[in-house]
Amino acid sequence: MPPRRVIGIDAGGTKLLGGxxxxxxxxxxxxxxxxxxADRQETLNIFTDAVEEVRAAAPDVxxxxxxxxxxxxxxxxVSRWSNHLPLDGVPFRDLMSERLGMRVLVDNDxxxxxxxxxxxxxxxxxxxxxxxxxxxxxxxxxxxxxxxxRGATGVGAEMGHSxxxxxxxxxxxxxxxxxxxxALVSGTAxxxxxxxxxxxxxxxxxxxxxxxxxxxxxxIVTEMAHDGDALAREVLAEIGERLGFGLVGLVNTFNPxxxxxxxxxxxxxxxxxxxxxxxxxxxxxxxAREGVRLVPAHYGDEAGMIGAALMALESLE
Length: 317
Ligand SMILES: [Zn+2]
What we know:
The protein has 317 residues and is of the alpha/beta class. The protein has helices at residues 40-57, 92-100, 109-120, 181-185, 187-200, 205-211, 218-226, 230-254, 270-283, 286-289, 303-315; strands spanning 5-11, 15-22, 27-34, 63-68, 71-73, 78-81, 103-108, 129-134, 138-144, 147-148, 258-262, 293-296. The protein is built from 11 helices and 12 strands. The strands form 3 sheets. It has a 5-stranded mixed beta sheet with strand order 3-2-1-4-7, sandwiched between helices. A 5-stranded mixed beta sheet has the order 10-9-8-11-12, sandwiched between helices. A hairpin with a 4-residue loop joins strand 5 and strand 6 (78-81). It is globular. The two termini are 15 Å apart. The site of zinc ion (ZN) has 6 residues, from loops.
C-alpha cells in the first residue's frame, strides 16, 4: 500500500505555505502565496488556487488540513474572528470542502503548530507544553495533558493578546487591546523597534539604511544582528526580554516542561532566546521555572503546515 498523504496548508497574516505531507512528515510539492489587502473573496480564492496547484501534483490526496490565523470554532469548523484576514464569521470547513470537493479540517494556526511540535518536534514526549509563534503577529498553542487545549468553544488559546504593558501601543489589526504581547513582541515588532532605533541613531548602520530609504523589517534587523551589528543585536535583546516577560505568566500558569518558539522571528535564535531565558530565570516562580526548557521550533516556520497535515492524517485513523 502506498504511504498515506494529505495536504497541509498554513496561512499566516501575510503568506500561505502548503504542501503534500506524508506519514513520515516529508513535504512534497510546496506551494507559497502572499496576500496584502485582499478581501474575503480574494483570500478564499488564493486558498483554493494554492490547494488546486498542490493537488495537480498529487491527485491521490483526499483530505486537507488548514491552519488559519483566526479564532476557529473547532467542532463546527467556523472561523469566528481574525485579526489578520477578512475571515470573520466564515463557515470555513464547509465552504472549502464544497469548493474543493475534499474533506477539510481547520484549526487555528497556533494550535496546528503546537500539534506538530508536540507530536514530532521540539516538544515531543512532553505532556505539558506551550508554543508561541512570532510572525506578523503572535500565534499560540497549548498542549495540556497530552492534547491541544482549545477552551470552551474551541477558540483558545490566543496568548498573543494578553496585555504586557498597560497604556502601551494599540494592538495592530482589529484587536481591541492595548499593549498586547503581539503589539510588543512579534516579528513585526522587531522591525518596528529597529526603525525606532534607526531614527534615534542616524549614524548607525540601521540609521544609514533608513537615510537611504531602504526597508527595515524584522528579517533585515535579524540578518544584521547575525552579521554582528551592535544596534541590531540590541533590538533582538530588547524583544527577547519582552518575550521573556510575556512567558513568565505562562510558566507560572501552566507549569510547562517546554516552551517552543516558532514563526519567522525564530531566525533570531539565541540572540532572542537567551535574554528571554534570563528573564524567566529571574522572574518566574521558582518551582515552575525549574527545568522549563525554552527551545526553537523543530519545524521552523513550517510547523503550521506540518501540524495542519497531521490534523488531516490523524482524522484518517
Ligand atoms: Zn491584541
